[in-house]
Amino acid sequence: MESRAAIANLQVPAAYVQALAELIRSLGADTSDWLAMSGLTMARLEQPDASVSLPLFAQLAFDAVGITREPALGLLLGDRMHAASHGIVGFAVSSAGTPRQAIELLARFVRLRLPLLSVSQQSVDGEVEVQFHEALPLGPMRGPVLEATLLTITRVLDSITLGSCAITQVAFPFPAPDHAPLTRTMFGCEVIFDAPVAAMLLPEQHLDLPLRRADPAAFREAAAICQRELDRIGIGERLADRVQRLLAERQNGFPSLAVVARLLQLTPRTLHRRLVAEGSSFQTLLDEVRHRRACEHLRAGGLSIEELAYALGYADPANFRRAFKRWEGVAPSLYRDRLLR
Q1: How far apart are CA 322 and CA 324, in angstroms?
Q2: Total structural domains in the chain?
């Protein structure tokens, strides 16, 4: 987790406070009283590029639950949000070429919009698990914040994929609330509570389907703007994300741990130690990139199994076959044959 001093300097776009105000108003509560509790006015929030500090946003959310007496406020807020609600990040997501590209962009830039959380992902038995990690202890706002965030992302993914990449499971790291039945209804999938981490599962086989609204040029420009904004405000990425991006940028073979450490201006030992502290490892990240690229190539065709093994850095195709069977439960040749049926 980041230091409390760094957290206090993080900003949340005022657009989210405005959306919360609209919800409070729709529930019959007085938004002026709610804002006044934090010394704010709607006129201030409507200023260009307005934002509030992260601690102030957390207090506003806490007060919103109190003034509305609605424990499911997070769900109701998440249900109202759409891609356009999230500024340049939402525009980039809407321009993505595949659901995987959209999710990877969200993981990389979510903290531009909501610095309360960071996002990571991993492949699990033919599905991709997207995990949401707290930048600071959320306390009593843990439930509403996580419910709002996960439902927002669910709605955005439904919108850009036209329902073709449905989330199969959502998990929350807190006990089932009284409104758990409503939670399951709104997500429309299995919802589990008391999980180790907030997460959602998506089917791996659907993540590389082309999206109808894809705009490669717009996506590249929007992603570049997001990166410049991230650099400007100094919100750090997880080291694991930076390593995975360096690996994914290579089209032929992959750099070693020593080379990646050099590119990041770290010693190999320090890189290993910091990745372990984030709950990851260089080999895990390399396997994730290899797994993703192997599936992409098998869907596209054009390479034999032996050629694909070599392209992924395996000296012996048998090692690639064993790794792929561990990832997908079937040999790469059978996986490809199923795609051709």
Answers
A1: 6
A2: 2
Contact between 103 and 116 under an 8 Å Cβ cutoff? The reply is no
CA distance 116 to 130: 16
Full domain range(s) for residue 281: 238-340
Query: Would you say how long the chain is, in residues?
Result: 341
Per residue in 218-271, pLDDT (tens digit) is 999 999 998 888 777 655 557 887 788 778 766 667 889 999 988 888 899 999
DSSP 178: T
Q: Is the torsion defined by CA of 163, 169, 171, 175 positive or negative? A: positive
| φ, ψ for residue 264, nearest 5 deg | -95, 5
Helices 99-113 and 239-249 cross at an angle (nearest 10°) of 150
Could you tell me which residues come within 8 angstroms of residue 131 by beta carbon, excluding any fewer than 6 positions away?
119, 120, 121, 122, 197, 198, 199
Q: Are residue 323 and residue 251 in the same domain, yes or no?
A: yes
